[in-house]
Structures are given as C-alpha cells and as structure tokens.
Amino acid sequence: QKEVEQNSGPLSVPEGAIASLNCTYSDRVSQSFFWYRQYSGKSPELIMSIYSNGDKEDGRFTAQLNKASQYVSLLIRDSQPSDSATYLCAVTSRTNAGKSTFGDGTTLTVKP
Amino acid sequence: EADIYQTPRYLVIGTGKKITLECSQTMGHDKMYWYQQDPGMELHLIHYSYGVNSTEKGDLSSESTVSRIRTEHFPLTLESARPSHTSQYLCASSEGGGSNYGYTFGSGTRLTVV
To answer: Are B8 and B110 in contact (CB under 8 A)?
Structure first.
C-alpha cells in the first residue's frame, strides 16, 4: 500500500461543475496536508494547506480533512478550463522527518 | 515572481559529461529538496538538506551528489551523465521549524543526455 494514494484519473468534468479530488494516507500521525496544482510541463504550485479536521475554503477551492478516516479531499467549485491540470496530494509527518510524501496525482480536465 | 531559481532551464549534453544543475532561493528557507520527475509520472525525492552542511539521500537511488555550503544555494552534480539520467529535475524549498510548511518549487531543469 502506498503511503499517499489518490483516486485514479483522469477525471473529466464540464465547465461550471464541482470537481472532487480525493486522497488517503497511511501514516496516522500525519500532521500537515497540502494540495499542489501542476500544469503540463510546469512545476507544482502549492494551492491549499490544511492541518485540522474540517473544511478550509479559499475562493473556489475547499480542502476537507478527516484524520479519523485518514482522508483529505479538494473540491473545486465552478470548475474552469484553466483548472485543467494534475493535482498532487502531499502529506507531512514527524515520522518522515518533516518531509512531504506526494501522491501520484490526479489529472483533471474541465471541458468547456 | 519566482523566489527559487533553477538554471539551466533546458540542457542537452553528451554521455559521460559532468554537469551541475543550479538551484538558488531568496526566501531564507532552511529546507531544500531535489526531485526527479518524468513526464506524467510521480515525483521522486533524490536529495534533501535541512541546513548548511546538511545533506541526505532521498528515496530514489541516484548517482548524483549535492552540496549545501550556503543557505540559499543547493546545486546538484552528475559526475558522468548517462541517457538514463534524462528527466526533469525540480528543486524545492520550505521553511524550517516543523512540518507545517508546504514547498515552493523552482521552474525545473529538463535534462536530455544523448
């Protein structure tokens, strides 16, 4: 089992819809959770971070964390074609000396 | 505006050559990382540093070496390039003092060894 698993893609949604990206992790003492966006041919860009159970909203993006279920998700409301990218989930834990462990990524395509 | 800089952006080099990929950051971050990523594939950690004179190998076996003589500078060197080293190399940094900080990535160096 991988330490960080993301739902296999690719994921395709119509413009204006809600895109839901999911991530599970295996280390129960994980502390910090991040979502990165990576456009094709570009480097990853940090878009959300979450540390406590519940929801965290930033514009059209909402991160949700459930530590009991070891689950973190990213919702993108009113999806735009410019949201088409690969989204990477990353988890940081003291047991990994504070380094982030990245998932394989989920590729999202938003169709006009 | 990039606060972490990688040079060169693209590099094509012959087999057996020695190369150094440069990475510098202006944010004063203690932690720096090198990742290797093939197109459409996952990130692989090859080296990291938690401060000056501190370097560690990552999860992916690599024939490269790194140094951290100054906080802002974390170069990666390949003593003898091979076609198997063809990949994108990404440098990243984060603040120290715990695990609550995400990474800032540079633009990457796309290396082709012919």
So the answer is: no
Distance from CA of A16 to the nearest CA of B (A): 26
* Sign of the C-alpha dihedral computed for residues A11, A15, A20 and A23 taken in this order: positive
Chain centroid to Cα B21, Å, comes to 7
The SS3 of residue A81 is: helix
Using one digit for the tens of pLDDT, what is the confidence trace for B55-98?
A: 999 987 778 999 999 999 999 999 999 999 999 999 999 987 66
Beta-ladder partners of A45: A37
Q: How far is CA B13 from CA B36, B44, B91, in A?
A: 17, 22, 20
Q: Give the integer Cα–Cα distance in Å for B113 and A3.
A: 32
Give pLDDT < 50 ranges for chain A: none
Using CB atoms, which residue from B33, B39, B107 is nearest to A43?
A: B107
B-chain residues within 8 Å CB-CB of A31? 99-100
